[in-house]
Amino acid sequence: xxxxxxxxxxxxxxxxxxxxxxxxxxxxxxxxxxxxxxxxxxxxxxxxxxxxxxxxxxxxxxxxxxxxxxxxxxxxxxxxxxxxxxxxxxxxxxxxxxxxxxxxxxxxxxxxxxxxxxxxxxxxxxxxxxxxxxxxxxxxxxxxxxxxxxxxxxxxxxxxxxxxxxxxxxxxxxxxxxxxxxxxxxxxxxxxxxxxxxxxxxxxxxxxxxxxxxxxxxxxxxxxxxxxxxxxxxxxxxxxxxxxxxxxxxxxxxxxxxxxxxxxxxxxxxxxxxxxxxxxxxxxxxxxxxxxxxxxxxxxxxxxxxxxxxxxxxxxxxxxxxxxxxxxxxxxxxxxxxxxxxxxxxxxxxxxxxxxxxxxxxxxxxxxxxxxxxxxxxxxx
Length: 381
Hints:
Blueprint: H1 10-20, H2 23-29, H3 37-47, E1 50-51, E2 66-68, E3 71-73, E4 77-79, H4 92-103, E5 108-109, H5 117-121, E6 129-132, H6 138-150, E7 155-159, H7 169-174, H8 184-191, H9 194-201, H10 221-231, H11 238-248, E8 251-257, H12 260-269, E9 273-276, H13 290-301, E10 306-310, H14 316-324, E11 329-332, H15 334-365, E12 379-380
Helix pairs in contact: 1-15, 4-15, 12-13, 14-15
């Protein structure tokens, strides 16, 4: 058991995760593409937004809960899909899904997860969301959708900004692989993380289990690595997106919208929500932060579809700023990963409690009692 008393910010969890997670997997989360300009802008631009403090206002009986697709969520936040979460901590996706369920917010499982759709479903009671990457082999994408339906996933999140993989220098330098190759460099680093290694030895989940055993010819890790690098679909278009929507037939979310023109295309095909996202600064570098693009997209959408946002949220204050700027919901990835990497289930729960407390207290100091009453009037421009 880890003493969590002195872990009071997301930054504290990040520092602990950096010590406990092997370098290649910590760097996988804590990195952007190319110069990392967009990665840094996602967080830096939040810092430029200021609150207006209000006083002598009744701030008792506060409420941070919202309804997302008709289900109550303890705060306007869902866990974003994070690839390789099961390499931050053994069985990371299972742990994360259970933490989210117990806390009371939605969890999204990535296509590139270590634990499979079925693994996660066996360990939770409530439905979770599934995120899809479109591969060249569309029949495999359809099989993934069918598997998500079979276990009762309640929403499909389609990521549209990964037709080619952005160049992430840290991953290249680290020789990122799952599980890690036993090079001298990697073995030396793994020896510095004995607890992580021991936990990994206790589980059989150490590869991309949504893929291995489900694709013809993929039976070992060496073949898998080559298949993944070649299989993202550069021909993805809006007709494909509409077809995927029809295959799914349920709540449908598109992640990766950064321009009003693409938001308009998403609305045309009929989606339930769009996520303003630049993939955490991991795809196109030297582009805008998500929080800077959010207000314009909200305005252009004009209430025709629910607009959500991810990228750069490292505190409950950031979450509140996003809501004030028009997002109906937010997603967190790194902030939650730090908790899982730091100390598993305890750390994930701690991260969510930190975010909710910061959200609640900041909302109160801005003179609001209910998150549903928050708008841009709490901000200073």
